[in-house]
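Troubleshooting: if your tokenizer reports a length mismatch, compare your output against this known-good record of 237 residues.
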Amino acid sequence: MKKNVKLISAIGVAVVIVALILTGILKTAGTIDVVGKGSVDSFEAVLSASDSGVVFDEENKGWKLEAPDGSAGFIWSGNFSESPLFDVMLSVDAAPFVEAGLDIEKLPEYYTVQDGMLLVGTQLGEDQGKEEATPKAAYEEIVRKYPHQIGYHTPMDHYNISLGNGNLFEWAKNMEMNGSVKEAQDKDIVFVLHPEPLIAAGVDPEKVEGWAYTTVSMGMGASAEEMYKFLKPFDLQ
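Known-good structure output:
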């Protein structure tokens, strides 16, 4: 009888542990889903503010949001099955990095060079389906199928999309309120590069013209940590 009681108790404890784990997973998934859905309206606002800066990139089969000065762009696929390189990526002028010592041959495989631009990004999958006819619709498809790619940077009040290997594209949650957040002033959009592979390929981070090399608080709450990044911010208003 005592053995049966112990067995029943053990099973009961195991059931509770499994339930707690599943609850944690569901809460995390729910948070990711909320962040992704919440990002859509602000992304649309950025697209509207960029106006003629949003074009379809025939070579990379995706929509491209260009920086006001043309020195950088964020590209997201219209159809993952047709992406020749990456499904989401940054395209940045290679010249400042080359002038700061970059040896392109030493870059990892997730970098490539195209028409004088460095392209860095990642592939998401093959199941996007039909080609999305608008920039917003293509972004919404990423949110729907790959919500874990979308994040929220609390100190900046920015949403972001992970491009893999520490590279990001960020945009203001609310451009109208952006100026009230001290760290986010004049940063409606931000191109973010992880510096380590570039430094390993010869770049002197202090000599890259047009990019800020600085620490950024990455993560949330107690898990947040200061990390060096290359930042290229723009004000769209």
